[in-house]
């Protein structure tokens, strides 16, 4: 497709809505350099090829002087001896530093912000405007997965545009030797592409750690006179996260760097370089960048450390799901559940549907008064104890502390119901899984009551999450459109195209985290990879048998999502009871 950006005189409409984007069930092929602003990009969730450019034949150690620099050239202040010495010393000592046109940060990881990056003198007065104009002439591909939504071009080396080619040459011949000198990190070649984020677009948390990526960079274009510097209300910030002792990103966001015209951001790719692109919330202007990596020989591993190809973290660290045996509670199902779902004939029909389709949805599952009491408890429960659930590169939502609930609270009774041996028996009747009876060996379940609002998500994480077959139970309360939409995808290896892509990308597929493994699916399919999409609806028990290897994620909730119930009674949250049962 072709996408246009605002000109100096007129602003093109850049409103991006879910209706005119690719459908949730469609995936497009993704290159490694197409993983988004992958200096802001990369993915825990998608296998991609590292489609980088070849190393240049030679590297110049001083500023080049050819026809490309007649179009664009780096600001001469960054070649000044005083700047170079100050920057090098601060980088090596891991000290903060700031001066004319630059700032060097050390937390949460090493990152530099260079202002007025390109020289815009009398000879090159409108370099950024010329670059932005060429953005309107290139072909854009929509990138849409669990981790991100945005537009991107092919690699810059293949784009026959004067200013973009000149910028690419300057990156190779001017900037790469300079970055190598400033950081002391050996560099061999550069990869680059253009990215465009319209309203509603985003890129979730990842660390860029893969193979030979050494320094990530983002060059910002916002040359419109009234919008050269972005504000918080516009969104689109590069958001930085702190890593905990397990090298996992934690909330909240530590720092934010907003787009500014002619600004270049550089950061060292490492185990702690967790970042995201905050959702663009302005409908007036797109977020335009040229982004990629400077590549070089892989860094030596620290003693006992992990590298870009290291194995996954211990699942107990990342996947802190607590499973329990059925509790010896004989819940009175008739006091909770619609009588029709307790009739033997209906149970048999449910079982047949699960056997045939691996899923069934039971509407009006709970008795009306019970469901109403649960909603009232959630809406008025000011003393309910919620905590945010991470790590940030896998998920963001809140969970209820069931243990802190008083015995008389209806939510405590809901917890007792779904963890009781009586419920295990009912689910046995619905599915014939060995959750109850003589053949049942070690049945167990995990349960969460989740609270969702704008900005919440889950992504496709560590493959060990999907190592076992599981019976998923999903139940919505205060359901709202587009909040908590769950997508199930085909298991790894199913389908010719997926199998081909998997084998092609297995060795170099990018990871959002050094603690995660290659995603169990790629972005290019001949057949639709989506098995099932659960749409939020009140008082519906969604029963899904998830076979080994089948993956799922819950779609990011855009800040542009209209929360109808927030307008009505002022309650913006959607609640999701999520239970997993295993034989």
Automatic annotation (TrEMBL):
Transmembrane segments: none
Biased composition (Basic and acidic residues): 1-12
GO MF annotation: an example: iron ion binding
InterPro entries documented for this protein: Oxoglu/Fe-dep_dioxygenase_dom, Oxoglutarate/Fe-dep_Oase_C, Pro_4_hyd_alph, TPA1/OFD1_N, uS12_prolyl_hydroxylase
Biased composition (Low complexity): 503-520
Domain of life: Eukaryota
Cofactor entry: L-ascorbate
Similarity field: Belongs to the TPA1 family.
Protein name: uS12 prolyl 3-hydroxylase
Protein's organism: Anopheles gambiae
